[in-house]
Amino acid sequence: MPFWESVNGLELREFRPGVRSTAELGQGLNMVCMEIGPGLQDTGHEHPFEQCGIVTEGRMEMFIGDQRRMLAPLEAYFIPAGVRHGWKTFGEPVKVLDVSGKPPQA
User: Fold this and answer.
1) DSSP code, position 7
2) What pLDDT band is residue 7 in, cutting at 50, 70 and 90?
3) Which residues lie closer than 8 Å to 9 by C-beta, 6 or more apart?
């Protein structure tokens, strides 16, 4: 689907426990709207492609490399390829619009 009318009106499905999402998967990019439940954490990971996004609802703490920041609605992030990053949510769900590249196909 080339257009999303509103990220707030998208139907989200359980991706993993506590995380619901919907995605458009292209050949070189993925666009994902996700809702992360309260009190969850990704302690860190990295991947060989860039990633960026914007918080649309709620607040979350994110770290990218050695930088850490609390993000609120309409605040954005950019994660360079190969840099360790993760997040933590608190007392409310957080919605994020996230865009990432894909690793080259062999």
Assistant:
1) G
2) confident
3) none
